[in-house]
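Researcher: Good morning. I'm working through a list of sequences from a screen, and I'd like to move beyond sequence-only analysis. For each chain I'm collecting a predicted structure so we can compare shapes side by side. This is the next one on the list. No need for commentary yet; just the structure.
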Amino acid sequence: MKKYDLKVLAIIFIIGMVVFLVSDTITQNKTQAIKNQKYKIYAQNIQDDIKNLIASKQELTYSIALSLSKSDTLIRALRTNDSSLIKLKEFSQQLSHTTSLQNAWFQINDKKGRSFYRSWRKSGGDLTNIRPDLVKMLEKPKVMNTISTGKFDMTFKSMVPIFSEDNSEFLGVFELITHFNSIVQQLYDSSKVHSVVLVDKKYKKQLIDPFSKTFVKDYYVANINAKPDLLQYLGQNGVENFFNITKDYRIDQKHNFFIVTYDIPDIHGDPMGRMVAFKPLDSLSMEDIEYVKSNMIFYIALIILALALIGYYLVVSKHTMELDARVKKRTKELHNEKQYIQTILDTNPSIILVTKDSKIVRANKTFLNFFEYDLLEQFQANHRCICDFFLSIDEYPFDQDTLEINGTQWAQYLVDNAKAEHFVTLEYKGAAYHLMISALPLKNNDETLLTLQDITDLRNKDRLLFEQSKLASMGEMIGNIAHQWRQPLSIISSGATGMKLQKQFDTLTDQIFYETCDLIDSNAQYLSKTINDFRDFIKDNREKKQFILNDELEKFLNLVNSSIKTHQIELILDIQDNLHMEGYPNELIQCFMNFFNNAKDALKQKDEESRILKITAKSHNGSAQIVFQDSGGGIDKKIMEKIFEPYFTTKHQSVGTGLGLHMNHKMIVGGMSGFINVSNKKFVYNDKNYFGAEFVVVLPLS
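Model: Good morning. C-alpha cells for this chain:
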C-alpha cells in the first residue's frame, strides 16, 4: 500500500474517531436532557393528581356540609343550647360505608367561636385562638372550604354558617371535617404513588391531642396510613430537607425513589403542610431515550459510511490519475478503467452522480433504476438534471426557474455547506421521496460528486410515530375533558345527597323533589352533550355547518338558566338578530359554557346584588363580535398572558383545572379561524360602577 493510501486512511480514521467521540458526547447530553424533561412531566402529573384529589375531596365535603347545615334540628339545638338534640355520630359511620369519607367528623360552633358539639369527643372550649379560618367566618359569615390545623389534626373543613329560619340571626357554624387518608389511598390506587402528609413543625405545640399520634422529628404526620418505612426514610434523611425542597422532584437512585412534593397552604397562603410523594424510580418509562440513542447510532453509522466512501473515492481517484498519466495513449485500457469505476458505482445502493453546472455527466445504475431509464442519455433527453424533480432542499422550497436555494445555485449551496446534513424532497410519478444528499467538489473544480441515499421509509416511520403520539395526546385530552365534569357531578351529588337527607329529616317536598330531579337530569344531559361536542372537536372528519348565532346563544342560555337563577346572577343580553355563520356550533356552545363557568365562579365571591353578567353579540366590520363581561373583579395583570395555557387557572386550586380557556382558544382560533382577547374593564349599569373581566371573541360571518 502506498504512502498516499496510508495517509488517506489515517486521516479518515482520525476524522471517524472525532466524529464518534463528538456524537457520543452529543448523544449523552441529549438523552440526559430528555430524561430530565420526562422527570419534570412525571412530577407535574403527580402534582396534578394530588391537586385534583384535594379538589374532589373538598367538593364532596362541601356538598355534604351544605346539605346537613339546613337541618331544623341544628337551629333548635343552638337556640335551646341543648346539644343532645344532635345525632350525627351514626351518620358519620354511615358515610364511612357509602363514601370515601372514612373518618368524617362533625362540629358545631356557636356564634362566639366556642365548640358547641363534636361528633368524636366531648365539645367545649374557645377555638378562636387557634383557628384563623373560624375567626374569619365569625367576622363575615359565609360558606368556606379550607384546609387548616387545629388541636387534633390538619384536615379539610367545610364551614357553613347557620342562620335562624328567617335568616335574620346568625346562630353558629356547622363544620364537616375530613382527613387526608383517602387522598393518600386514592393516589396509590390510581398511580401507585405512596405519600406522607406532613404538617409544619410550628404547629407541634398547637396539636395537643394529634389524631394519628405520629411525628417525624417535629413534623406531624397527618395520614394514619403512612408507610412506616417511608417515615423512617424521612427521619434518616432529614425531614426538613423534604419539607423545604424547592425543586420539581428529587431522585434517590440508592433507594429507587422518585420523590415529588406538593405544598398545602393555610388560609393566608402561608406554608402549613406538604405532601411528599414516592414512586418507584424503575417504574418510570424511558423508552424515548432508547429511541434517541438508536437514531444517533444510525446517523453516526451514516457519517462513518460517508467518510469511508469519500476516502475510498480519494484513493480510487488518485490511482485513476496515475493510471491515466501512464496509459495516456492506451485508449482501450482507459476505457476498461472507466468501466471498472462505473461497476463500482453501480454496486452502490445509493444514487451517485457527477454533475457539471447541474448537468449530469456520470450516474450509477441505482440512479437509472430509480428513474426507470436504461441509459443516461435517455434521461438527459427529457430532463435538464435531477433537480427537475426537486420540491425542496433542507425544507427550503426549490425554485425551478432559477435552480437556486436562498440565492445560491443548488449544487454550490450543498458544497458550501458540506459539513451539514442535507435533505432533499423530490416528486416522481406523483409520489414524494425523501433523500439524504451530500456534495463533494472534484479536484478539477468543474464537477461535483453527489450522493443521494433514499430515507423515505425512515421518514415514513418517523411520521407514523408522530401520528401515534398525536393519537396518544388525543386520548389524554379526552381524559382531561373529564375534569370539566366536576361541577355538574357535584350538583348531581349534592342534589341526590340533599334529597336523601331531607327525606330522613322529613323536609322533602314534592316541589323540591321534582326540581332536584330536573336539575340532576339537565346536568346529566349536559355531561352527555359535553363529551359528544368534544368528540366532534377531535374528529378529523368533522364538517362545518351554516348556522345562526342567535340560535346557538339561545341553546346555551337554556343550558345555564338554572345555574344563573341558583347563583342569583343578573343577566344582561344585547344580541343582534340574524348573524349567519359557518363553523362548528356545538364547539361554540362549549366555549360559551367555559366563559360562563369562569364568570360564575368569580361572581360567587361577590355580594348577591353585585353579580352582573353581560353578553353582547353584534356584527362589526364584517365579523361577529361576541363579548362576555362580568363584575367579578377582573384578572391579575401578572397572569393575564398565561390564562389560555393548558392547566393554568386564575381560580383557587380546589375549583379550577385550567383547561376551559385553553380549549376555548383552540376552538375559536384553530377551529373557526377567529380571534379571542381578554382584558379588565369598567362598566356602568343602573347608575352603579362595576369592574371585571371582559372576553371578546371575533368570528367571521358567512
